[in-house]
Amino acid sequence: MKRRWAFAGLLAGLVGYIGLPYVLIQRLGLGTLRQGKLSEAAVALTFDDGPDPQYTPAVLDALREADMQATFFLLADAARQHPELVHRIQAEGHEIGVHALRHRHAWGRWPWDAYRDSRQAQRHLQELTGERLRWGRPPHGAYTLATWAGLRRAGLTPVHWSVEGGDWRRGATPQDVQAHVLSAVHGGAVIVLHDGGPGAQITPVALPSLLLGLRKRGYRSVTLGELEQLGAAPVTRAQLPARLMAGLDRWLDAQLKIRPALGREGGCSVFRPGLPFARPTLAG
Q1: Among this protein's residues, is 124 annotated catalytic?
Q2: 48 flagged as catalytic
Q3: Is the C or the N end of the chain the one with fewer CB within 10 Å?
């Protein structure tokens, strides 16, 4: 009986410490900035896991050639090893956000370690940049209660994404990443790619064509700060029902093999033009 109660207590603790943040923050986006206004012709390209001397310069070259801006979520330890890249990011008009000291998943960290990480990384990056940094995104976009509390204690606004490039996936190609982002992009999208780690082998090759594709579709990439000025704001509790309904939409579309006629930009509803079971009645 004692073992059963101990197991139940452990399970309840894990649900509260990992499960709730996963559902409310990581999946539903509560308190995170994850997209701007759908009506805007602006998107926010974001890059994680840098700076990396092998890949970050190529990403910066492509952005400069396309005259587009982005936000770089940096690992503090890598930034201290390559301060010249940090200064170049700043000099070329991009924004810097806090990723972590080192790239470690939140679920595998001790609570106190996870709590302190954001503030420590922020302090090191601010010493390098001379700027007050506002945005935070933990590795993998993963949260625990300690990670969330640490970000809030550091005064950082958590940032997630609405379009994931998938450059880190095994077998991904530059063409895959380009096609996926361009098919999923929408006004106000926050797009996540990588200039460090596994995804960085793909993104610099994909980026020139991807940026051209965004421009042809009428989009320009801006920093998160600029996206915020255009009306982006963190998800609130009042918006959670709509986000839950959007999740139901996606599940129904997958089950019924539906491609929404109006796209996802128009909001969420379980009612769809052209549902497969809404067949017309033939006269005669």
Answers
A1: no
A2: yes
A3: C
